[in-house]
Amino acid sequence: MILKILRSPYFTWFLLAIPSFMMMRGYFSGQVDAHGLLHPSGEFSARAMILALICSPLTILWPKVKIFRSLMKRRRYIGVAAFGYALLHTLLYLIDKGSFSSVMAELLELSIWTGWVAFLIFIPLGITSNNLSVKSLGARRWKNLQRLVYLAAVFTVMHWLFLEYEIGPIMVHFVPLAVLEIARIWKQQSPSKNTVAA
What we know:
Blueprint: H1 2-7, H2 9-28, H3 34-61, H4 66-73, H5 75-97, H6 100-105, H7 110-127, H8 131-137, H9 139-146, H10 149-164, H11 167-197
Helix pairs in contact: 2-3, 2-5, 3-4, 3-5, 3-10, 3-11, 5-7, 7-10, 8-9
């Protein structure tokens, strides 16, 4: 029974939503304002996106590790969570600014418009992360659309970097992803290279 609960998608959703519950509890209790939640909500969005992205390279590099296969099965949930936290981050930003004019006043700043671009890319990815969209678009078109997440990752890095100008936290979060992706590409191309050489 317990094992069945742990494998349930609802349990996965619950785990992914815990940080948002804590943020909203702090906000509605008055312990923290919208501005104070901007960084954690954005950071959790980035972390969920990275976790979703590393599922594939981890599974390809270490196909026999059960926890990596388990993550791979839940990758879509994690990706939707990344969109959810990005949406929360955006709503908190709008609340913090307080008016349309305040939002527009800094829209063209590099640290701001890169965040908006990343969020706009996230929207179709989050909306189509379901079986109905896969059937409607076709598996190939759906996969090509979902690959836009890599572009969203680039703009997320830019948004984070130019907003805080701290390279350390960005490297901690994104360098492991880059290393795993490079290793995945190398492993996938290695057999073809060996075949050519033979």
